[in-house]
Known about the structure:
By secondary structure, the chain is of the alpha+beta class. It is built from 3 helices and 5 strands, in the order E-H-H-E-E-E-E-H. Strand 4 (93-102) and strand 5 form a beta hairpin.
Amino acid sequence: MKEIxxxxxxxxxxxxxxxxxxxxxxxxxxxxxxxxxVMIMIMENAALNAIKxxxxxxxxxxxxxxxxxxxxxxxxxxxxTGEAEVTRVDGRRIEFVVxxxxxxxxxxxxxxxxxxxxxxxxxxxxxxxxx
Length: 131
């Protein structure tokens, strides 16, 4: 595996659609705004994109921790951009600072951690749970 450098950056864009709204799978009384779990997914994908160029075939990284604040609402139709930067690499554990932006406004920020895994070994562990 190539060494993952501190400072590696990634991004992920998502156009907010009906299925991303808080009132679709949380509280129907809410106005049609981006749901926090979807914002987190955007941030996690940005973090994965930051390290993908350094991963060998058959390797990936799973999210293991997230600590974020959701700062502002985003309506349907708007593009949200997730940004992530590697802040620490400790063996298989990678830490990131993450944020989400819509139309130039920061809508969320925080920290995230991912763990490098071998996909085949992970699948074996999962299969053992069903045995």
